[in-house]
Structure formats: structure tokens, C-alpha cells
């Protein structure tokens, strides 16, 4: 039977963690998982900054850039999950004009 052994991608919006044995049950659970990932990424930035030498070398700058990139990605994932869960927030920026 064609397609019988084909692997299907995870449902849209599902961010699998290698340690998750079961997929999230709903949008709120996906939001919780993505919020947890964002918190971990932010904590990794803090940990890096605590051990940063007074004069950073190029490797430190590269690591910092990678940590910020990861934090940005996890925040975007969290924001998308919040939107999917109905927690869309209007821009918090003041109106320009």
C-alpha cells in the first residue's frame, strides 16, 4: 500500500522536544512548552553573562550572538503559540504619529 510507511510531520505549531513521549494535548500545552523553552534560553543568556570575562574574546562574542539568536527564536515560537491559544496582544509600542 503506497504511503503506508511514510512518516508524517508533526501537526502545525507543534514543537517537539526530544524528551517528550507524548505530544501536547492542546494549544495551551503547546504554549506552556514554548514558554518553558524561552525561559530556558533566557536563563542560558544570564548564565553566560555571569561567567563572561571582563574582556570578551571573539569566541565569547560568537557564543553570545548564538544565545541571543536562540532566545529570539524561542520567543517567536512562544508568541506564535500564544496567538494560537487566543492570547493575541495588540502592539505594546506607543502609536507613532
General description of the model:
The protein is an all-alpha fold. The chain has a domain at 27-84. 54% of the residues lie in helices and 0% in strands. The chain contains two helices and no strands. It has helices spanning 27-51, 58-84. Helix 1 (27-51) packs antiparallel against helix 2 (58-84). The protein is elongated, with a radius of gyration of 18 Å. The mean pLDDT is 81.
- Residue fraction in strands: under 5%
The residue-averaged pLDDT reads 81
**Morphology call:** elongated
How many β-strand stretches?
A: 0
Helix segment count?
Answer: 2
Indicate the low-confidence ranges by residue numbers: none
Biggest sheet character: none
Report how far the terminal alpha carbons are from each other: 62 Å
SSE ordering: HH
Helix fraction? 40-55%
Radius of gyration: 18 Å
Helix/strand structural class: mainly alpha
Amino acid at each position: 500500500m503506497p504511503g503506508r510507511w511514510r512518516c508524517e510531520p508533526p501537526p502545525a505549531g507543534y514543537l517537539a522536544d526530544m524528551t517528550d513521549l507524548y505530544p501536547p494535548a492542546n494549544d495551551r500545552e503547546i504554549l506552556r512548552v514554548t514558554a518553558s523553552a524561552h525561559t530556558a534560553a533566557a536563563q542560558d543568556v544570564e548564565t553566560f553573562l555571569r561567567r563572561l570575562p571582563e574582556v570578551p574574546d571573539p569566541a565569547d562574542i560568537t557564543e553570545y550572538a548564538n544565545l541571543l539568536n536562540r532566545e529570539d527564536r524561542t520567543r517567536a515560537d512562544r508568541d506564535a503559540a500564544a496567538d494560537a491559544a487566543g492570547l493575541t496582544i495588540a502592539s505594546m509600542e506607543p502609536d507613532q504619529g
